[in-house]
Design a protein that fits this description.
single chain; alpha/beta; 8 strands; 44% helix; disordered N terminus
Length: 237
């Protein structure tokens, strides 16, 4: 059964090199203090058993594998991911309407309580020049809006976007369409490889529903203290 903790906005990205380090970190967390994101590196090293472990411990898990393939393949991959009990998973919105609809339909047909399905718009590491290099002569914000509108029309529950686009999407795509934002950094934290960032409180004020935060928490000298500070900051927004 999928755990649900409505009050938790923070999704901690478990960007660890192996499952042992990730599990040691998670063992110190109370379910509900945050949600957990498992991405490509950790999933590739450890496989589905680590996802099941965290789900069984009562954590909401966002499986961040960004599926992008032909509709049938993505639909079956989403079905397999949902069988792990994850709370949320994602696909690349640029895979197109048919791919996203197939994924959503597969989840609805095979799971009585399907996970949230969101679309990736423009990666927060990409700016205007990066889009131009891959043949998209447009500003990131316009491409985000185009893909978010397509994801909404395909029946998805929301999108991944930069916090700087959250307000635009709330206005243009709808209040009930989830906005999951990486590129969030507490005041004074290093930007790492992100280029379009806001602080947690700024991101929520702009319209973010969930905040993906990794290294500023997991690599802090006292990760639980940083997590607690951010939770207190968001409670005051």
């Amino acid at each position: 059964m999928i755990a649900t903790h409505p009050a938790s906005r923070i999704i901690v990205a478990l960007d660890f090199a192996n499952g042992a380090r990730a599990a040691a970190f998670v063992d110190g967390l109370a379910p509900g203090s945050c949600r957990l994101k498992i991405g490509k590196e950790l999933f590739t090293r450890e496989g589905p058993q680590l996802v099941r472990r965290f789900v069984e411990q009562g954590h909401d898990v966002f499986l961040d594998l960004k599926f992008h393939d032909i509709p049938h393949t993505v639909a079956r991959a989403c079905e397999a991911a949902a069988s792990l009990g994850v709370w949320m998973l994602n696909v690349h919105a640029c895979g197109g309407r048919q791919m996203m609809q197939a994924a959503k339909q597969a989840l609805a047909e095979t799971h009585s309580q399907p996970p949230l399905l969101i679309g990736v718009t423009v990666l927060t590491s990409m700016g205007r020049d990066d889009l131009t290099e891959v043949g998209l002569d447009t500003e990131p914000e316009r491409q985000v809006l185009r893909l978010a509108s397509l994801a909404r029309d395909a029946g998805l529950d929301g999108v991944v976007c930069s916090p700087r686009e959250a307000a635009l999407l709330r206005q243009e795509v709808g209040e009930n369409f989830l906005r999951v934002t990486p590129g969030v950094r507490p005041q004074g934290a290093a930007l790492d490889d992100q280029t379009r960032v806001l602080t947690p409180a700024e991101a929520v004020r702009e319209g973010a529903d969930f905040l993906v935060i990794g290294r500023p928490i997991t690599q802090a000298a006292n990760p639980l203290a940083v997590l607690s500070d951010i939770n207190r900051e968001l409670a005051a927004v």
